[in-house]
Amino acid sequence: xLPQQRQDQIVRALRTDGAGGVKVLAAKLGVSEATIRRDLExxxxxxxxxxxxxGALAVDDGDEPFAEVSAVHAAEKDRIAARAAQLVGDGxxxxxxxxxxxxxxxxxxxxxxxxxxxxxxxxxxELQNDDAIELIVxxxxxxxxxxxLVGFLTEECLKHIHVDxxxxxxxxxxxxxxxxxxxxxxxxxxxxxxxAADRVVLLADATKFPGHGVAKVCExxxxxxxxxxxxxxxxxxxxxxxxxxxVVLA
Length: 250
Known about the structure:
By secondary structure, the chain is of the alpha/beta class. The protein is 38% helix and 24% strand. It has ten helices and 15 strands. It has a seven-stranded parallel sheet, with helices on both faces. It has a three-stranded antiparallel sheet with strand order 1-3-2.
């Protein structure tokens, strides 16, 4: 990985979590702590983060996290989305979470006679002109940078629907299979989505093991299936299998 690519990943990680320690960042990126310290110093000098003892803090510069991550690991996300699309039968209803993998799944569902419910504004833009799909958009407060709808209105809307499939995103997965997220305001919506679905499918590329997140979204027992990559953490996959969760490799 080039230094610029590594530093971009550090900035994205900090924007997701708000802060990050040297040890955590080194483990995530697979480099030495000394390398991370040098990167943090350079990024601090560039004004892209604030250096603090033991790590760094994110700088709010108005960039859009959704736009930043949309092209990251695109091929892997496309494979996961294509495999997930195969699960959906004609006439079924689908609930799509926020995130770029959900957007790719929406692209893979074009032309299908199904119902799509979403809080993902990028999905809305993708499917709004597809006459084959019945599209339902949840209400709520607009988080522009994350292209999502959140808040009590979103949660209230979810109390009045029930779907065949939920395709759930995540920012991180614990080794024991717990699904986490780093954006606190999104977690209640994700939990309400789980309650509104017959089958819950987690979409997660290998970078989400362990990924980020301090807020628990759900336990393995809340999942029906996980669609991920062959390189995903084997210990986590084993925990899911023991919990009765089907693991599908894309």
